[in-house]
Amino acid sequence: MSKKILLLTALYLLMPIVAHAEEAPAVINSGDTAWILISTALVMLMTPGLALFYAGMVRGKNVLGTLMQSFIMLLLISVQWVLWGYSFAFAPDMLGGIAGGFAFLGLQGVGIEANGTIPHLLFMLFQGTFAIITVALITGAFAERMKFSALLIFAILWTTIVYDPLCHWVWGGGWLGTMGALDFAGGTVVHISSGISALVVCIVIGKRKGYPKEHTPPHNLPMTLLGTALLWFGWFGFNGGSALAADGIAVVAMVATNTAAAAAGLTWMFIEWAHRGKPTVLGAASGAVAGLVGITPGAGFVGPVSAIIIGFGAGALCYLSVSYLKPKLGYDDTLDVFGIHGIGGIWGALSTGLFASIGAKGAFFGNPGQMIPQITGVVATIVLAVVATYIILKVVNGLVGLRVSEEHEVMGLDISEHGEAGYTA
Question: What whole-number distance in Å separates Cα of residue 7 and Cα of residue 274?
């Protein structure tokens, strides 16, 4: 009898503890917070890295204009994200999975309370760095010919109408995420959206004067290679940080990121070597970026061998797009944004549905049905990007005009748009 009383007493004492554990609110973890603080800084660094990557590939008379097109996004989208962008992406649903609502306008209700295991305000800032670089990626498609005033209006409208809702679709509780689409760090949200939009922009704005007859080699490849290194470095935060914790999935994502970038860089280099007779610095750098793009949606879902296969596919497909598809169709995508981010992003989203084996299963690991949400996500992103980007461009053209004059294009955007010269010697 005494044993039963002791047992019942022990169970009674434990019951409040169990109930408390079940109802305990989210608690901020210092290790996770430290990792996302670092990851946020790494992703922020990617935009200056992109600026260098792009600026080295244009002509010297456009180096400052190209740097500015990326750098200005740090200023512009940082403010947009605080005022309304974050709310449209991550506030509770407003339109049945299409967009977030107004609950977080001006970051009202967003403070240092826990969002998962990190402060809500830190989650907001981390996500903001993604919004910044996504619209910056598009600028490579129209380098050397868009008005700076047009760029500012385009960037605000595009981020608000394309990026923010798409982010909600996938990561903010919207319909694609609910359907089960896998996008670990931005294959659809970042790369397909920017790559497809870039194709629309370069077609609408038209070719550069003299293209393709006039030869326009990169003016500073060391700058481009430095930009590649900074992008690769920042991508560890981009993909690894998307685990939102300092855990094993972050490690999986970082290993996959490094492995796919290396595999794609080698693939592009060897194909180019066989095709053109020389392995170029620009080719190796472009291939590495293609691999980083390709692995982004699956980084936390795939193992190292799958990452090599995904990297190989990204390097090969992006090289073929840049070397064959672009000349055949005749569009002037100045810095190959569509060829690398559009094609690489599509391949990455689809290959995630094939090779996912960690935390989710893809077609090659017993779940062929995963391809349905992956394909749906790709198609939906393309449709949104094409339609919305085209409408935005027409609006911007009606307001201020999209393109600089022929005289200013010949002069170069550094002088005509900014009144400065990148090189004075």
Answer: 77
- Residue 339, domain CATH: 1.10.3430.10
Residue among 77, 134, 86 at smallest CA distance from 106: 86
Closest CA to 206 of 57, 401, 400: 401
Residue of 190 and 94 predicted with greater confidence = 190
For 412, the domain range is: 30-418
Give the Cα separation of 349 and 166 in Å (integer): 15
Q: What are phi and psi of 100, to 5 degrees?
A: -75, 170
Residue 51 lies in a domain: yes
Q: State pLDDT tens for residues 75-110.
A: 999 999 999 999 999 999 888 899 999 999 999 999
Rounded-to-integer distance, Cα 390 and Cα 382, Å: 12
Query: Is residue 69 one of the residues assigned to a domain?
Result: yes
pTM of the model: 0.93
- Residue 164: what pLDDT? 98
Q: Are 325 and 307 in contact (CB under 8 A)?
A: no
